[in-house]
Amino acid sequence: MEEELKKAVVLLSGGLDSTTCLAFAVSKGYEVHALSFDYGQKHSCELKYAKYNAKKYKAFEHKVAKLDRKFFSGSSLTDKNIQVRKDSYSESEIPNSYVPARNTVFLSYGLAYAETIGAEHIFIGVNSIDYSGYPDCRPEFISAYQKMANLAIKNAVVKKIRIKIETPLMRLKKSEIIIIGKKLGVDYSKTISCYDPIDGKACGHCDSCILRRRGFEESGYDDETVYKKEMR
């Protein structure tokens, strides 16, 4: 009789980090249930890559939650009237690409999904080293959320499951994430991290593109990113 696989919900945006996280979860033997979000983001082209990689890594299922963009206003990722910051990356401030409570909302959907299918693990590709300064990517946030999660759901309260928020990329540099991903067979040309893509191709100048380019330079791997124009 075959041993039943451990179930895990993987939050999958279609970007570099979340795709690496997906590949990592699969490599650890989890039955992966991928969860993506359409929240009116300007870079919604990422969802086609989420679909591609969920299929590539043989996710048991892949769901896309449709959220109302009005609840995520005030961000350059959702508001047409707010320009994405370009060529001025800073680690000392929270940029206008911050989306209100995004990871809190995403994890809450993941938590409900996990309880529904009897999963104890929720993977999220947050990182506290090479990132844009978002408060909901910090270890303190993840620790607090995990504590809350186990107080919030029936199956945890009655001791049927214990929720663990898995953050395998939390303390890795972008270059280290890329190295891990390449070893796991990730094709980064089939991911997009850009906050302001043009015709589905990366702009090369937003915070996320800058971090991604630097990561490839430090990793020793060729940059597989598909840019709108040749980056030199």
- CATH class category: Alpha Beta
Overall geometry: globular
Percent of residues in helices comes to 25-40%
Provide the domain count: 1
Mean pLDDT: 93
The total of beta strands comes to 5
Largest sheet data: 5 strands, parallel
CATH architecture: 3-Layer(aba) Sandwich
At a glance:
The chain has 232 residues and is α/β, with parallel strands linked by helices. The protein is 34% helix and 12% strand. A five-stranded parallel β-sheet has the order 3-2-1-4-5, sandwiched between helices.
Offer a few descriptive terms.
five-stranded parallel beta sheet, 232 residues, alpha/beta, 5 strands, globular, 34% helix
Structural account:
Helix content is 34%, strand content 12%. With 232 residues, it is α/β, with parallel strands linked by helices. It has one domain (6-219): Rossmann fold. The protein has a 5-stranded parallel β-sheet with strand order 3-2-1-4-5, with helices on both faces. The model has no long low-confidence stretch (mean pLDDT 93).
Sequence-ordered SSE layout with sheet pairings:
Layout: E1 6-11, H1 16-27, E2 30-38, H2 46-56, E3 61-66, H3 102-117, E4 121-123, H4 139-152, H5 154-157, E5 164-166, H6 174-183, H7 207-219
Parallel strand pairs: 1-2, 1-4, 2-3, 4-5
Helix pairs in contact: 1-6, 6-7
